[in-house]
Design goal:
The chain has eleven helices and no strands.
């Protein structure tokens, strides 16, 4: 039990660093916009800079986290499981991310979700579609996946599995990933996606695996043409089959390290 609390405490420390950086950058940017922009244009200015601020916050967070890892006397590559994966596994992760988008969207469409919740989701999503296109791409496809995979799979989940049963580590890692997304629908599907990203991490034995899946998910969901209708029972079944197939293709972890063996006992 003591080992579990220690592992959870370290995971929460990394999570607090992530949340603190995001909050500080957001507050500082809001103050700057309020000072230098016309009050009537405040909301539109916040939307315009949302993605750029996200990029800044994510890379600041990554830099701080890497410094903290080094301060603990740990090797960054080892701590984050930055191991090479083969091309077949890499492509499987990307395709899996795309299939996960289609599956999640269809599952959400089948659920009796109130219109008010959908509207709140649409309003929250709209901010990510504002501002320069380059900022949308860099934030959504590069900065956000990189930062979140380092935090939630590389540090939060990885530390949790060092001191507790694998199932508990997976549940905690997925739930925490969902909670930080804030908006109700984002919380629900991010928690579900967190589970699949952890499975990609486990199957490939590398942070690169879940990072590629996350990039595939974000890139496809953000930039797929609206004219592409991929809804219905048929697409749900196809996406589910493709998603499961990608996990079969991913290179399995050949050996479980000692701390994971201990956690499973």
């Amino acid at each position: 039990m003591k080992k579990a609390f220690k592992a959870l405490g370290i995971a929460i420390l990394y999570l607090l660093i992530f949340e603190t950086v995001q909050t500080v950058v957001s507050i500082a940017a809001s103050v700057a916009i309020a000072v230098f922009c016309d009050p009537t244009e405040f909301v539109s200015a916040v939307y315009y800079f949302t993605n750029m601020l996200g990029v800044v916050a994510d890379f600041i967070c990554i830099a701080i986290l890497l410094l903290v890892i080094r301060a603990f006397g740990k090797n960054i590559k080892t701590e984050l499981d930055i191991n090479p994966i083969n091309l077949k596994s890499a492509l499987a992760c990307l395709v899996g991310g795309i299939a996960l988008v289609v599956l999640v969207n269809n599952v959400l469409a089948f659920l009796p979700i109130p219109e008010s919740v959908w509207q709140e989701y649409a309003d929250a999503s709209q901010a990510l579609m504002e501002g320069p296109k380059w900022a949308q791409i860099v934030f959504t496809v590069i900065a956000a996946p990189l930062c979140e995979e380092i935090v939630f799979r590389g540090l939060v989940y990885n530390n949790c599995r060092k001191g507790m049963p694998m199932a508990a580590a997976v549940i905690i890692g997925a739930l925490l990933f969902g909670v930080v997304h804030g908006q109700f629908l984002w919380v629900c599907y991010a928690a579900a996606c967190g589970f699949f990203l952890i499975m990609a991490y486990n199957n490939t034995g590398s942070l690169i695996g879940c990072l590629l899946m996350h990039m595939g998910f974000n890139g496809f969901s953000q930039f797929v043409p609206e004219s592409w209708d991929m809804t219905g029972i048929g697409w749900t079944i196809i996406s589910a089959v493709v998603l499961v197939s990608t996990y079969v293709i991913m290179r399995p972890v050949k050996a479980i390290d000692n701390y994971t063996k201990e956690a499973l006992l």
